[in-house]
Model the fold of this input.
Amino acid sequence: MSNTNHGVTPYYYVPEPSRHPAMAALGLFFVILGASQWVNGNDWGRFALFFGLIFWLVVLYQWFSDTVHESQSGQFGHKVDLSFRWSMSWFI
Done:
């Protein structure tokens, strides 16, 4: 993803631009469009809703897979690793 020297973990990790936020927004657009049309009596709305949900979940899966791959390949430094661990600690 980022341009780093091999064997040296950078102090800060700055990822390259990603398509995931735009694709997730597109999926959520179809969720909202489908839900609003289904509520208003259009039968095609339920298909748009389910398409949007499936599309959004696939994008989230890919996004987290990329993040895990970046972490396991050593692109994250100690500070980024600590921020992930701290932000997830309130879930437990």
